[in-house]
Design a protein that fits this description.
With 168 residues, the chain is an alpha/beta fold. The chain folds into two domains: 119 residues, no CATH class; 42 residues. It has seven helices and three strands; from the N terminus they run αβααβαβααα. A three-stranded parallel beta sheet has the order 1-2-3, with helices on both faces. α2 packs across α3 and α5 runs parallel beside α7. This is NB-ARC domain-containing protein. InterPro entries: P-loop_NTPase (IPR027417).
């Protein structure tokens, strides 16, 4: 569906609004820990000698004490992360306070009692002009671009990949 591509584009278009933007791979515990270790290194946090779980806790504490950050939890399709807690992802990896924004890409319907905004990408259809811009980039239309857009169902990721291939 192109959830990650849309999140990436949002980050790019709004990079001036946030002091820190971090992409957190959220499909497994190992990927989450690696992403938090990378974030800690970018923040120059003193993590030498700490195990991955300690680095995650230390980095979350930093997020809770600072503002201006934007976290993208990408591919968060298993909130339990194979544990007994359905909300393991949120309980163990989301900052509980602080002045930052969390964006989660997932195929699941995210419902809690908390205030949040869910954007169902299945309800959003890219218009022809936007789809053509994504496909063609700076290239000229040879008359087949709209047919390609329609064949690919206006899907952002498919259009982006096709556009990349057209530039080769």
């Amino acid at each position: 569906m192109g959830k990650s591509q849309i999140a990436l584009e949002f980050c790019y278009q709004n990079k001036e609004c946030y002091q820190y933007i971090f992409w957190i791979e959220a499909d497994t515990d190992t990927a989450l820990q690696s992403s938090f270790i990378a974030a800690a290194k970018k923040l120059d946090l003193p993590i030498l000698g700490k195990n991955p779980a300690e680095v995650v806790s230390f980095t979350i504490e930093w997020f809770q004490s600072n503002n201006g950050w934007f976290l993208v939890f990408d591919d968060a399709d298993d909130y339990s992360l194979k544990s007994t807690s359905y909300f393991c992802l949120q309980d163990e990896y989301f900052p509980k306070s602080g002045r930052g924004i969390i964006l989660m890409t997932t195929r699941l319907n995210y419902k809690t009692g908390q205030e949040n905004i869910v954007v169902n990408l299945n309800e959003i259809k890219m218009d022809d002009d936007t789809a053509l811009k994504l496909l063609l980039r700076e290239n000229d239309d040879d008359g087949n671009a709209l047919a390609i857009v329609q064949m690919l169902g206006h899907l952002p990721l498919a259009l982006d990949l096709a556009g990349a291939l057209m530039e080769i």
